[in-house]
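Replying to the earlier thread about multi-chain prediction with a worked example.

Input:
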Amino acid sequence: MKQLGNLMDRIIARINVNLREFQFDAEPLVRRTIPLGRLVKFYAFYGISPRQGFHFRIFRSSLSGSYFLGRCTVDHAVVYKSDIRGDELKAKGDRFHFQGAEIPVCDDENIRIKDACLIKTLVHCYTHDPEILEEFLIQNTVSMHYANIHGSPVEGCFIGPFATVDLTTIHDSVIGAFSYVQAGELSHQNIEPGTVWVHAKDAFDFRYIFSNNVLEKYISLEPGASPRGIFIDFIRDRKMDFQKIFDVVNLKAPISIPRGASLNRYAVVKGDSVIGENVLVAQRACLENAWLGKGANAQENCYIINSRLEGNNVTAHGGKIIHARLGKNVFVGFNAFLRGTPESPLEIGDRCIVMPHTIIDLDEPLKIPEDYVVWGYIRNADDLKTHAASVKRLSRVKKSLTLGAMRFQGSGAGFIEAFKHRIEHILAANGAFFDGKQNKGHAQMGQDLTFNIIHPYGKGPQKGLYPTMDIRP
Amino acid sequence: MKQLGNLMDRIIARINVNLREFQFDAEPLVRRTIPLGRLVKFYAFYGISPRQGFHFRIFRSSLSGSYFLGRCTVDHAVVYKSDIRGDELKAKGDRFHFQGAEIPVCDDENIRIKDACLIKTLVHCYTHDPEILEEFLIQNTVSMHYANIHGSPVEGCFIGPFATVDLTTIHDSVIGAFSYVQAGELSHQNIEPGTVWVHAKDAFDFRYIFSNNVLEKYISLEPGASPRGIFIDFIRDRKMDFQKIFDVVNLKAPISIPRGASLNRYAVVKGDSVIGENVLVAQRACLENAWLGKGANAQENCYIINSRLEGNNVTAHGGKIIHARLGKNVFVGFNAFLRGTPESPLEIGDRCIVMPHTIIDLDEPLKIPEDYVVWGYIRNADDLKTHAASVKRLSRVKKSLTLGAMRFQGSGAGFIEAFKHRIEHILAANGAFFDGKQNKGHAQMGQDLTFNIIHPYGKGPQKGLYPTMDIRP
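Result:
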């Protein structure tokens, strides 16, 4: 396993150079978290689709337990139980629209992961950086458990557990645990843990910071230890459900799949679960007594338990919904944690927007009315007063709004408009509007996937590394 | 599945051109046997070893259910449930000895399968043709169920079910069902079904031909139908045992594996089976209540059932041993079928040589003494008189010996010498003589294998074809 050790040294050294201004040291954060022996235990898998371009190249890397789709190059990297989804990459000849300009895409876009260590990370979508449209680069970077790297090229970054970088090009920055950043471009920043920040230049700025008390309880990261807290416990308690689906090569769907819907064979489905037409259930999603109405989607790392979603719902990467009823067109953002109980269920009205990284953890029943935006940390109806606003109210904001720890500046209408537009795009991309012929999305295309299962060297100095590989259509 | 259909057309057209002098038509033999839909059902698997070179390249091919190891290129071919073992290929810098000359090997040898259809075929070893040492080519060829292509480059050939081509370069020839040919070089020949022919130029010639009655009973092939007979029934009855081992990704050994032994994870082990030190059990081997003594090997497609093998036994590719006790150093050749019953067990003494393609199917107990060579079709002690000779007797033959349907010409001592030499080589190559440090063979190296599992396109015009792939160290 000597060469795998050398590879980890190389990655840690590189990120430490990039983050030297913060005296950052990745060593004690990474070493303890993934002992090298673990990297030999799990296979990687690569999805082959007849409908979309793919090209998979790896060199001198470890891919233990990771899922790949689309065009990806992995070079001197450790990718551990991560999901690398290249099914929305740009193709040669596409036109990219940016602030009124139309930029031609010169090559098929490729996700390139180089000198990086990704732990249980979700990488998806494509670079929104008009400066390099053809390469979605993740370099000299460490990302921790259940981080999301979404449409965000990152170089020289440390991304903490449950943190999300969304539609943002980031250089030499630290993104703290459970922080969400959507800011277009970011450089040499140290984002404190628990920061939820949505920023559109000259348009709007939304910012909320979780208190240290809350973070300590739900997710915290200390040098020399693995991340801990309620989020980690929650996932660990459900870990065994995934064992079976990884043990077998081909798995028949445990429930019936209606027209236009798809259930990834690496998803868990338990109890009395039902999925409707045009529903997408992605790999590593977990459904238990879940009822998903037409056009709903359950993305990677999401858990939907003892809950009913009426239709056209988005449950973004890492979203968790327990003991809840969600109306139509409810959006639940990245890594949101919505936990009701049988005694204290959660109800969310139609068209609500649950901001990314929202925690709703109830000790009394809670009902959120239709057309509301919610954020932050909510335990009861009282918390809702400072952690929610109606779409109408927000849309009227012209300059600023402060509510509890949330500070909004700029155009509320622009903010709402941007969100609504994106939700519509996500539903369309996932196939919610498929009519049997037109408007195909991931739900319809996902039905055609087959998987290649890739193992590392089992012995010798290369133990844990994967052979060099090139897979093309 | 259009492209897969085109590929089959291409292969059939090519072999028919090569075999036009015989008015041969592969079409009705191949079409019925593997309906295209079957080629989508099974995955292929590729063994990765840290100890030996590997390089796997495929283009525009279907590999359904096939096993690959070592350096292989598959190009416009259909390889169905076949075993392609490149673990004894020559390496760059090796010296090849041929009739006193020493020829340098200029490149790493590669198995190349091009415009060929292999059905449940075993391909192993390396080319013995001094004219091309670096490429083991199988081209414009169809081989049928349980054929063995062993160290034999073949071009423009049809190889019938349970036929074996061994250490022979063959052009534009038909090898009938259950024929065994070991002849160095062969061109434009039509070998009748059931011919067992061992020929060394200017040294010896062994020939036996099974009667049509026997062939009809055990294995026959008619245009428009799949092969049928006792051999096919025997395998079909045990097919389900293999299901489980192909369904799971990683499989723990079902019995304890002593020092220096290896049990391939794609082998079946049932009942009260025991394997000794330095035993090799290859993929697709099947053990049931089998006792294998130190240094015995069970090669691909062999079945050892309710039997005891004392040690240093070779059970070559496709050999079947049922209700039998074999002494030490007994050799059982390719596709031999040795079937005792509880009432009529078979006993074979030390150092016996069971010729390839021998059928022993008992209706009374039979004991074969030590140091005997047996061949042909044996049902009882009476048959033995014309289907066996002691090593001593054969060694004394200077010119010829005719016994029943067997005709031997040339040097009996040379024939025995060549066989003994080869058996010794097979035991050494398989690791029978490993002492804990020295004399490593496949049994010891096989312990380090990991497997990649490869799926075809599941839908669309390319359905059943595999993506282009290149896997290197």
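The first strand of chain A starts at residue 44 and ends at 48.

Feel free to reuse this layout for your own posts.
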